[in-house]
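During the second year of the project, the team shifted from modelling isolated chains to modelling whole assemblies. The rationale, set out in the original proposal, was that interfaces cannot be judged from single-chain predictions alone. As a representative example for this report, we include one of the complexes processed in the last quarter. Its constituent sequences, exactly as entered into the pipeline, are reproduced here:
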Amino acid sequence: MSTSTNIPAMTPTARRVRAYFAPVNRTLGQPAVFDPSLSANFSLDAPPSPWMDLGWVEAFSRRSASKYGLLAAGSPANTQYQVRESLDATVSLRFSSWSKLTMALAAGSQHMNVITAATPAPGSGNGSGSKGVAAVSLAASGSTVTFLAMASTDAAKFAAGSLVAVDVDYTAQTGYVGSGVSAAYVASAAAVNSDPDYIRRVTFNVARVQSVSTTGVTLAQPLVAGVPTAVMKVQPILGFVDREGGSFFQEWSALFVIAGDQGERIFYYYPRLQAMGGAEEAATPLTAATVHVASSKSFTASSASANVANLKNAAATHTTQGASLPSSSSAQVLTPMHINQSERISLAANFRALPVTDANDGERAVCFRTFVPPAFALI
Amino acid sequence: MQNAKDTFYITLRNRLTQVNPERTMLLRSVTRPGILVEEAESPMALPVLDAFTLRWTNLTMLPQLPLPLAQMSCEIYYSTAGTQLNSGLDRGRLLEAMDAELQQMLSPQSAPKMNYTTTPATGMLTSIFWSEPEFQPAVSVRDQISRVALLTVWNWQEAGER
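Output from the structure prediction step:
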């Protein structure tokens, strides 16, 4: 039996990567901070603020693209020094869930909300949505992160289960817009037709309506921008739209966590990730061919279940003689099954990491990798 | 490997008492949670109905790692004939219930390894962990319906461990 009090440094084993994203303050150029000395043991289901849990991701891949040069001297020349010529890294992954945030991250550019169109619809239509129905004002007080206080006549315009966008009117602001998250960059009012709905068209401050009362609308999920201000307005939305094109780059802080089977944790903290690709998806068949794990002694072949096997044979005979009931007596035969065309669609996302300065030594870095070893492992 | 096998069984047994405390069986005159290890019981003519039976089959060693890693195959067999009250017509529902219970018992997919040969049991330095279950097709035999779930259990062989 084991008498040691420690184990050697181990090979991490894990099966999944979990992703957390947090908005970068684009105006001030401030990324969200993940400090492993403060938060390395956080519950994966309850990340510290402002990190948002985007769940398990697939095909996570990170790559260093930094370039190195050398200084050679002598004859024949031999390397005397190395220099770091450039600092670069990329990350790619697939989101299995489709949401406002995952779509925006995967789309790369502005990600828009499809505001319910005004009736009759003005103009002849537009790829990212037409002029929306009039926005509804919030009450001066009473709103919370999950409740929108408004007049009863306004609340009646929303239905349980519908989607809403909550943000301020566009009033000729320029620069980054969007409450809570920098959702787009407006170069000029003319560029967005001075549309008062423009910020609500791009905002991340969206939610599903859980219920409606005479005092307002209760949301099924909290708003990312926190408690809405009284100057914000509410518009119903149908869904989301993004484009192949656009001049805006999504930029987010990202944290990827690998939770090892022995309790170890590996963190990849990217303070600034900018999208570097357009909208793409990956399709995976839902019903891949079944792979049977062959066993030297399966239950149906064992002595302990021999009688069951005999019963099975008898039943097969019986059903054959009966009325050809679809027997499942071939259940453990190695056959592919359920081949059809159903596929699950994942969002493919690609990012380039941008640098920050490490306050500890002033060095520039694009990613921080943290390893917390398992208990009892020597280091 | 015995510590790993014991830990896996005890973990599933304890989780079963949380998932469905009503699932019990009478075995060797003792009422206990409805899960057993085949190799640790007397030979049976028929599997116990409405209970989970664990069978250890294949074993592979991966020696080139910091500690030897044992990769063990486990088959979990379960069957039901439904209830007398419903003349067995609910056997499909009961099998589905056992499917769901097993999924819950297997999550999370790791557990700290224990040495149950000591009293009280002592914790070891590593954890065992296992794969997602591969549910095999249901098999109907007369009044019974059964299923086998296949999974792999991994175990770091600690120093001095047999």
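The longest strand of chain B covers residues 144-156. Chain B has one domain: 2-156.
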